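2024-03-11 09:14:02 DEBUG pipeline.ingest accepted 1 chain
2024-03-11 09:14:02 DEBUG pipeline.ingest length=201
2024-03-11 09:14:03 DEBUG pipeline.predict start
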Amino acid sequence: MELKEYLNILKTNIKAFVLAVVLVVIAGITYSIFRPVSFDTSLTLNITRSGTQATADYKYDDFYRLQADEKFAETVVEWIKSPRTVSDIYASSDINASQFSLGKMEKSFRSEKLSSQIVSVKFSTDTPEKAKKISDSISKVIAKNIASLNLNQKEENWFEIIAQEPVIAQSRLDFWVVILAALALGIFLGFWTVLIIYYLK
């Protein structure tokens, strides 16, 4: 079919097209107004040591220490992605983890290594109080995991986690971005609605 034929089909069924666009836009506006309130939280974990290794050449100590810190930061990132750790964090926050599937638990926290000694953790909650409680639980659970690793090592120069105060902000959607997205989706669905009506006729 040529473009002219498509335009004629659209013109013939313009009411159905406009109705589809309007309904999608109204749905987008309704969602942006009545969607549940959520709070985004960013927590920064600093990896440090409880002591300094005694060595004749401190430069080598610093070099290998940074390498070890970087590898341990990767371990912390993987811990936070683990359902076992997530379950412990929720339990420490008095949240029943049995309501979550394994897939959802794996996506509860977004963790990444920002540098050799800094790990960022981000998540969302429905209240700022819950966000603060979960942030404290993350620090406690990671510290407990670190302590359990050192049970057999008994190293004085071992890893420690220092958590900064979490940054908590209410999640907001740009109203006009929602309108434009809903409009684009409405035009797409309206076009296919017109084609389906034409096909059924």
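2024-03-11 09:14:41 DEBUG pipeline.report The beta strands are 39-49, 110-115, 118-125, 159-163, 167-170.
2024-03-11 09:14:41 DEBUG pipeline.predict end
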